[in-house]
Write a structure and sequence with these properties.
The chain is mostly helical and 153 residues long. The chain contains 4 helices and no strands. The longest helix has 66 residues. The protein is elongated.
Amino acid sequence: LEKETEIENLKHCTKDTELLEEKEHVSPEITDGKSRERLKGELLQTVSKLAEKEAILDRQTEELSAVRKELTALQDGSGVPELKNEILSLKKETKDLSEELNTVRKESSQKLKEKDETITFLMGELARLKQEQSVVTKQLGVACHPPNNSFWK
């Protein structure tokens, strides 16, 4: 209501200025000694402000209408089932995502366990092979190079 009153006041100002503009000779008391060009400039500013205010009023009217529709739907109960359905849908989606997350966690845990077992097995095999290599190297070293007793003399 406040904006509508302001718009009405701006419309009256615009009409008064337009009336002044239409007259050939305007008395100095009415124009406060302002030139015709200055009055035209003020008129344009007033028209611009009026257009802005009307646009704001239109937007606020649309928002108010939407809120009234939502309120009516909630009061009638027609909006409540829609909200309940949306809540149920979101709960189901959350449950599905939780189950999927648990499945992924279990799979990841199983893969990690398998990798640990593989690493343990490979480390054991590596240790066994190194030990065999050491034994073979000692056997080959003794067979190929008899001990040189002159070195210790």
